[in-house]
């Protein structure tokens, strides 16, 4: 069994996540009642190979990443054959400049790549804000069978928002012919989801070239390799959502309430792992009314919850009404309060009798501890 090195990058397309990343890294945005965004790419890597090195490129808000991952035991990464390292990152961020995959983050962590054992043949880069259960083992097998140098992952006919210099691929017979920095007005090509497999030696050569030339975007260097390397494309089947805005986060959360999406992400042999917590079971009071909702353990529900997600240790008091909303950990909705089409961040409180309402196209975000 070949060893794999996986790197979860510090995704750049987060400019419209606003207060969700004000007090935390994008990696640790809570989602789905008990998960964090990083749980999806990290679980994809863990499900790919038994022998694995994983580096997580952090940000200036790295404390939440350290608290969530700890030593990696909840992802089976604390054994001697598995390494989990949190790497420095985000130093190259500049106003007005967005690189899809920052080369500076790799340069700053050159020692991580230099110390990989000789039997590591492939490096897998994964975006941290992509919600999908991806069979990376199958993609690696295809990469090897095609004798590819690089395999870029994309989503065909992606229908989400395109923001902040998204990348599209022009593909012929699964060969990448052109890489385009697109936007909503430029729909040419298929959406690259900030994830790829690359042969280790080529990755190191690209890193050397980037340092010599002072380049900042790894994707631009891949574009320049198109004539000399075999760059293949792989369409990720099933559900894919890129969390690049408040609206995208809200839409993804509501998608998780759909049976087919929930089954695809969580009810198969490729598990999605997260940090374990010992909570009491959910408590439902005698006046509770819950319909089409995800309610995590440790929550207390005495009011009405419909078409919503309620996280651990959240409290919905008697007479409160929640609809089409996300209630994060420790949030409290007091009696007779109404919350519709809203996101309550951790430990936010809606006071007795207050109305927090909006539309599905412009959900309200109540900040952490507000």
TrEMBL record:
<dbReference type="Pfam" id="PF00483">
    <property type="entry name" value="NTP_transferase"/>
</dbReference>
<protein>
    <submittedName>
        <fullName>Glucose-1-phosphate adenylyltransferase subunit GlgD</fullName>
    </submittedName>
</protein>
<dbReference type="InterPro" id="IPR011831">
    <property type="entry name" value="ADP-Glc_PPase"/>
</dbReference>
<keyword id="KW-0320">Glycogen biosynthesis</keyword>
<feature type="domain" description="Nucleotidyl transferase">
    <location>
        <begin position="22"/>
        <end position="154"/>
    </location>
</feature>
<dbReference type="GO" id="GO:0008878">
    <property type="term" value="F:glucose-1-phosphate adenylyltransferase activity"/>
</dbReference>
<dbReference type="InterPro" id="IPR056818">
    <property type="entry name" value="GlmU/GlgC-like_hexapep"/>
</dbReference>
<feature type="domain" description="Glucose-1-phosphate adenylyltransferase/Bifunctional protein GlmU-like C-terminal hexapeptide">
    <location>
        <begin position="285"/>
        <end position="356"/>
    </location>
</feature>
<dbReference type="GO" id="GO:0005978">
    <property type="term" value="P:glycogen biosynthetic process"/>
</dbReference>
<keyword id="KW-0548">Nucleotidyltransferase</keyword>
<dbReference type="InterPro" id="IPR011832">
    <property type="entry name" value="GlgDAde_trans"/>
</dbReference>
<dbReference type="Pfam" id="PF24894">
    <property type="entry name" value="Hexapep_GlmU"/>
</dbReference>
<comment type="similarity">
    <text>Belongs to the bacterial/plant glucose-1-phosphate adenylyltransferase family.</text>
</comment>
<keyword id="KW-0808">Transferase</keyword>
<dbReference type="InterPro" id="IPR029044">
    <property type="entry name" value="Nucleotide-diphossugar_trans"/>
</dbReference>
<dbReference type="InterPro" id="IPR005835">
    <property type="entry name" value="NTP_transferase_dom"/>
</dbReference>
<dbReference type="InterPro" id="IPR011004">
    <property type="entry name" value="Trimer_LpxA-like_sf"/>
</dbReference>
């Amino acid at each position: 069994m070949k060893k794999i090195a996986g790197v979860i990058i510090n995704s750049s397309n987060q400019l419209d996540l606003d207060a969700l990343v004000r007090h935390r890294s994008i990696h640790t945005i809570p989602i789905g009642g008990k998960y964090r965004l990083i749980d999806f790419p990290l679980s994809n890597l863990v499900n790919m190979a038994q022998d694995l090195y994983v580096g997580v490129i952090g940000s200036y808000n790295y404390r939440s990443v350290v608290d969530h991952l700890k030593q990696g035991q909840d992802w089976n990464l604390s054994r001697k054959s598995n390494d989990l390292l949190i790497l420095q990152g985000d130093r190259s961020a500049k106003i007005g400049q967005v690189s899809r995959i920052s080369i500076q983050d790799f340069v700053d962590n050159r020692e991580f790549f230099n110390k990989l054992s000789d039997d590591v043949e492939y490096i897998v880069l994964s975006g941290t804000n992509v919600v999908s259960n991806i069979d990376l083992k199958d993609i690696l097998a295809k990469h090897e069978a095609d004798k590819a140098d690089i395999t870029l992952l994309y989503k065909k006919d992606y229908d989400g928002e395109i923001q902040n210099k998204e990348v599209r691929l022009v593909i012929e017979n699964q060969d990448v012919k052109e890489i385009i920095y697109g936007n909503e007005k430029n729909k040419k090509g298929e959406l690259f989801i900030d994830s790829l497999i690359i042969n280790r030696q080529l990755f190191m050569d690209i890193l050397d070239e980037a340092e010599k030339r002072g380049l900042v975007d790894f994707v631009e260097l891949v574009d320049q390799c198109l004539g000399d390397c075999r760059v293949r494309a792989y369409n990720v089947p099933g559900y894919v959502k890129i969390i690049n805005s408040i609206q995208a986060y809200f839409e993804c959360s509501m998608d998780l309430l759909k049976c087919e999406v929930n089954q695809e992400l969580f009810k198969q042999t490729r598990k999605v792992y997260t940090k374990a917590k010992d909570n009491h079971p959910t408590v439902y009071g005698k006046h509770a009314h819950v319909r089409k909702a995800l309610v995590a353990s440790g929550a207390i529900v005495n009011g009405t919850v419909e078409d919503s997600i309620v996280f651990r240790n959240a409290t919905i008091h008697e007479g409160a009404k929640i609809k089409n909303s996300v209630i994060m950990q420790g949030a409290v909705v007091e009696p007779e309060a109404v919350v519709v089409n809203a996101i309550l961040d951790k430990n936010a409180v809606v006071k007795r009798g207050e109305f927090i309402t909006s539309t599905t196209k412009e959900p309200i975000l109540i900040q952490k501890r507000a």
